[in-house]
């Protein structure tokens, strides 16, 4: 088991190195990468670790591997999916602020429309749960608890919108959110100001008032967006 864990750790490091080089533009779309054997020699790792890393790069749409040909870099803007976002934001262990800003903008726009849909599609249990979560956020004993409640509130909101694409997008955002929870804790900074916005949104969804629901969530998400970016300035 220790050997398997160590191999996995090595393949993770190889994957991060190659993905950062591709996403940073060191390798351009269509350019050949070194062969897997050459990469193993250059990085002083075994072939198994290289193969595991390359498989992950293929799954992300970053490289194309053809039998008998070298690996070629793909255009991640046209071939990649949402899973590329996390690697763009946190490349080389830092934070790419423009990419994070784009994610937060997309989050705000999606949640605004999800709230509008939830106001017409929500079930009674979902409306009740949103009210309960809004109250729990206001009474949360600490920021960490409030952050988890915020995620639960957003998840309930998106489920209430009854839009499967929104749900799948949130799944990607949730992983990003949880993996970097401490860095994004400003999402619940000054809960005294935010708590009424959660409550107002929950009330509007419960009363099936679309515009008020969308407006409340848009305001909440905009405040969170601004605070996260300010905390990273």
A few lines on this structure:
The protein is mainly α. It has helices at about 1-25, 35-45, 45-60, 75-80, 85-90, 95-120, 125-140, 145-160, 165-180, 190-205, 210-230; strands at about 65, 70-75.
Q: What proportion strand?
A: under 5%
Mean pLDDT: 88
What would CATH call the homologous superfamily of the largest domain? GntR ligand-binding domain-like
Report, as a whole number of angstroms, the end-to-end distance.
42 Å
Which architecture of the largest domain per CATH?
Up-down Bundle
Q: What string, H for helix and E for strand, traces the elements in order?
A: HHHEEHHHHHHHH
Commentary on this structure:
- By secondary structure, the chain is an all-alpha fold.
- It has 2 domains: 2-80, Winged helix-like DNA-binding domain superfamily/Winged helix DNA-binding domain (Arc Repressor Mutant, subunit A, Orthogonal Bundle), CATH 1.10.10.10; 86-231, Four Helix Bundle (Hemerythrin (Met), subunit A) (Up-down Bundle).
- Helix content is 71%, strand content 2%.
- It contains 11 helices and 2 strands; from the N terminus they run H-H-H-E-E-H-H-H-H-H-H-H-H.
- The protein has a two-stranded antiparallel ribbon with strand order 1-2.
- Helix 10 (191-206) runs antiparallel to helix 11.
- The longest helix is centred in the middle third of the chain and has 25 residues, at 97-121.
- 30% of the residues are buried.
- The model is unreliable at 1-5 (pLDDT under 50).
